[in-house]
Structures are given as C-alpha cells and as structure tokens.
Amino acid sequence: MTTSILSLKNISVNYGNIKALRNISIDVNKGEIISLIGSNGAGKTTTLRTISGILKPVSGEVVFDQQNITGIKPHLLVSRGVSHSPEGRGIFANLTVMENLEMGAYTQNNKAYFEEDLEKVFKLFPRVKERIKQVAGTLSGGEQQMVAMSRALMSRPKVLLLDEPSLGLAPQVVDTIFHIVQEVNKSGMTVLLVEQNAFQALKISHRGYVIETGEIVLSGPAKDLMTNPKVKEAYLGG
Amino acid sequence: MEEFVQHFINGISLGSIYALIAIGYTMVYGILQLINFAHSDVYMIGAFTGYYFGNYISRLGWVTLPSWSAFFFTLACAMLVCGFLGFMIERFAYRPLRKAPKLNILITAIGISLFLEYTGQIVFGADPKVFPNLLNDVELFSSESGNVRISSFDIVILTVSVSLVVILNFIIFKTKLGKAMRATSFNDTWAALMGIPVDRIISYTFVIGSALAAAGGILVGIKYPKIEPLMGVMIGLKAFVAAVLGGIGNLTGAVIGALIMGLAEQFVVGYGSSTYRDALAFGILIVILLFKPAGLLGKFGVEKV
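^ Those are the sequences you sent over. The predicted structure of the assembly is below.
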C-alpha cells in the first residue's frame, strides 16, 4: 500500500481571464518519480508554481503530508518539506556556488545537518564541489543545473519539484542530470518532474501525467505512457 | 598645492556623508527597483531627531554637551528612530503596492517625501534650527601657512562613515541576512522558493538604509549646524546622483560615486565658483552616463538561460 505525499485535487488556476489549469488532479506517492509532460504553455510550470504557493488556485486544494497547504506562502513551505527548483534553473548568478547552497539551506538551522547535506550533494555532484568558490553566473548551463539541484536538496525536502532540468542542456549533460535524479530518488526522495523531454522523463519515472492546455489528458504507469500511440505521436516523435 | 590638499580633505569629508545617504538609495533600488524619494527626508528626520534628542538629554543632565557620549547616544538614537521610520514607510506605504505597476509606487514615494517635508515644517517649524553642539571642533593639524587645516569633525565624519560602511559590507557579504538580501535582489520569487522570508528581508533593507541616512543627518548636523525641514532635498538629490553615477544597485559603486561627487563639488567651490556647486552634480552625471550608461560599476542584467 503506497501512501500519497502530495496531491492536487481539482485545481484550477487563472491568469486574469485565461484559464491556465482546469480542474487538474495529480497524486504523488512517497518514493515515486512522477513526470508531468506536455508541450510549451500546457500548464506544467503553472502546476509547480501552484504547489509551491507562488500562484493561488481559484478552486481545488493542494494536500501535502496530509495537510492542506493551499495558499500557504512559498517561503513557509520549504521548512515543511517542499523544495521547488524553478524553471531556467533559478541560480542566483551574483552569489557564489557556496552561497547559493547556503540559500538552499536557509531554513536549516542545524549546522551539523548542513555539513552532512553538503557532503551528500558533493558526492552526487563532484563538479559542484570543484566550483564551490566561483560566482554562480560564471558556470556553464549544466553546472548551473547541478547547483540548482544541489541547492534544492539542501533544505532536506520530502518532495522535490523539478521544473525542466534538461532545458537548454547538451544531450550528454541531460543524461547525467536524469541519472542523478534517479540516484536521488533511490535514496528515498519523492520527485515531481516537469519535462518537455518526455521520453527521457518517462524512462526514469514510475508514473506520468500528460497535460494539454491546462487539462490532464492521460495518466498511468510510465511504461504504458511510453507505448501509448497518442503520446508517441505527440511527444516522442512518432 | 596646500590648497589642493585642503579641498581634497573637505571633499572626502562631504563625499563620505553623501555615501551614507547614497547607500540607502542603492540598496532599496537593488531589492525593489524603486527610487525611494522619501529617503532624503528620512535623512532630515535623522538630523531633527538628533536636534531634539541632543537638547533633551543635555537638559535632563544625562550628559554634558559637548561630549563623546552625547554624540554617540544621539547618533544611536537617530539611527534607531529612522530605522523604525524606514520600516514603517515600507510596511504601510510601499508594501501594499508591491504588485502594482512600478509607477504607482514611485508616485507614492514622492508623496511620502512631500508628506515628511511639510509635516516637518508644521511640527519642527520652517525656520532653521541650530543643531546642538554635541562635539567640540578641535583643530588637529594646521600647516605653517595656515592653508591646510584638519579639524576633528573631518576625522569624526570620516571615521564614523568608514566604520558604518565596513559594518554594512560585513552584513551584506558575510551574514545570512546579507546573503539573503543579495539573493532577494537578484530574484525575489526564487528567494522565496529557498524559504527566504522576502518581506522581512525587504524590511531589513529599509531599516539599514534609513539608519545610515540618519547617521548622515547627525554628521551634517555637527559640521553644518543649521538644519531645516527641506534640508534633505538637495543633498538627497546629490546622493541619488552619486548612486546612479556609481551604478545604481551596486554598493561599492554608491560609495565611489559619492566620493567623486564630494570631491568634485569641493574643487569647484575652491577653484571655480560656488554658484556652480549644484549644477556640477548633474553635469558629472550627464558626462558619465554618456560613456557608461549603467554607471561606473553598474551592469545591465544579462541573464543566461
């Protein structure tokens, strides 16, 4: 019996008069990698932004760890265990890599935990350790993505929300990133992954949801989605 | 040559006061992209706080004037009062407009500025007041010809400004608060996603900036002891120019810009005509912005995606 750690129940979000999300429901179980796939403008980022409290839904609720977190401000969700690595990596380019990680651990007041987490992310991303003193804006795209993921892990989240970690990266780097997502997941982390790169996202996921113009049109085990003719045609290049 | 040295000393002294005020403009701009027009009036309130507090504590007999303790108590009091004032201005005038178009909040800033200036005229009176004699001015050095003099006020002004800037630098670059401020100024949404309480960080920014302006007010008070409710207008404008000159949003830039302004002003007064002292500020601004549109140390944001 799996337990749901994060669920969106009939969420609708509007941008002014535009309906960005219509009545979507998503369930994320503990220990899963869930991917939310869809094309540009389908509502993927909006979904993540609603979970982390940047956007307020007009109806529906977000339940995290058995608690209704709808409308709670983003900075208060971090200490509850939601960590959102935003679209475009969201690196503080004016800060050093170390300072970026410290910001990721902003809510972490335990120095020993901080050191421990630092060791953990260094093990996952040796490259981050090499670059630790550099100003983050001078890093390559792939390195910045590694910093973004490391930073997201520094708050000891229960759920990791990743918004298009593969965006604008070379195929080889994308492989590395997805491999590490899998590694992180194996250590017990629940991951909600938003991707345009549907094939690679589904390959590492347990289940997936397909979103189109603000509605969930398909969902199921990742393996089934990968062989679904509709998904194949629309997202996997036939 | 001696004359040059004298103007240089005066310029640095004036420039360091500009710097204390310019920092407030640049910090608030860095975090909210707002030109806080009320900042120069917070500086004025700082001077008046010093005026009332200095007189009050000496009347009560807590300290004797002039003395170091009177100076430091008054400085601390003015910084506290203005820190609180800055907090209130942000909390009740700017925060409700955070999501409104930038123009609305800019006009509000002008409104707050006028409000403080004219409330000041009602409460303090429009006529100039003589700032209490908190410190004795001692001549520390005088050249044989008498052309170069260093007074203790110059040293006090320089020491206090430099110490405050050093403390500020420590806060901004070494403490968790300062790092959070820099993160927030880069992108407040991302900062919130890290768990940084953005509203509180913005409050701290106003508190710190306003406290520094108050220190500027006290230092001006001891050196040029005539204070009045519109005293912030011109100096605020020059400090703002200094911030733009250095690259608004950049702390080091604000300090460098302020020193340039202070020096240039003193040299114009010394070698040219004091009629042009105010025109000069904008002259320099135009020239520098022609060649470096983002200011001396400023960068236009180029984001790598």
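Chain A has two domains: 1-81+157-238, 89-156. DSSP finds ten helices and ten strands in chain A.

Shout if you want it in another format.
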